[in-house]
């Protein structure tokens, strides 16, 4: 008999993320890493871009956010259920997360190439 | 400039899954596969167990379900946000999914190490 499977909830309970975003590793697959990110109104600092060496598939689980992709004129509003695949070095920034509720992300990072 | 990132929603629109569950591949990472599953009241046939060669991390995105793990006396009720890591060959069955609404799963299959 295998041991009982690990289990949990992405949204209950939530950590206090008022001071800073909270990152929790969920699964490591060698070539990928699955994690939950909880934001509370945080955004990428003005004028900065996020530029990653790996591909990131990101799902908005709860809350609301606005993402900006370099070269795109309008931001991408994200509501629960929305996902985005950010290829490595696709420069982007989190322009806004809802300050009035926690925003929960599920992020799957995949080694590029 | 990289091409615009692929994007979508796990819950809007939803396919018609009344006749059978609908599987949509989302991402393939060589060592893992990410997919969405939409159920509409389907369950594992009576007396059958699911037994997989790979590990499966599964998240209930919307709807409601009851999972049964072999050897456990009570089922595991799953509501949105709940996840479960099913190691390879952890025999389980989907005992029930809500017949009154679509149940949306996100499943990450990882090659067993």
For the structure shown, list the relevant keywords:
48% strand; three-stranded antiparallel β-sheet; 113 residues; globular; five-stranded antiparallel β-sheet; homodimer; mainly beta; Jelly Rolls
Explain this structure.
2 copies of one chain form a homodimer. Chain A has 113 residues and is mostly beta strands. Chain A has one domain: Sandwich (Jelly Rolls). The first copy, chain A, has no helices and 9 strands. The first copy, chain A, has strands spanning 6-9, 22-28, 32-39, 55-62, 65-69, 76-78, 82-86, 92-97, 103-110. Chain A is globular. The A-B interface holds A 1-12, 26-27, 29-32, 34, 57, 59, 61-62, 69-72, 76, 80-87, 89-90, 92, 104, 106, 108, 110-111 and B 1-12, 26-27, 29-32, 34, 57, 59, 61-62, 69-72, 76, 80-87, 89-90, 92, 104, 106, 108, 110-111, 113. Strand 7 (82-86) of chain A pairs antiparallel with strand 1 of chain B.
């Amino acid at each position: 008999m295998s041991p009982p499977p690990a289990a949990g909830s992405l949204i209950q309970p939530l950590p206090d993320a008022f001071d800073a975003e909270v990152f929790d590793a969920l699964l490591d697959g060698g070539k990928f890493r699955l994690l939950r990110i909880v934001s509370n109104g945080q955004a990428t600092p003005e004028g900065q871009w996020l530029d990653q060496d790996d591909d990131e598939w990101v799902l908005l689980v709860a809350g609301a956010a606005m993402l900006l992709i370099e070269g795109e004129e309008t931001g991408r509003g994200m509501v629960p259920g929305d996902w985005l695949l950010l290829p490595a070095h696709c420069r982007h920034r989190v322009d806004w997360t809802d300050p009035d509720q926690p925003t929960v992300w599920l992020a799957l990072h995949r080694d590029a190439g």
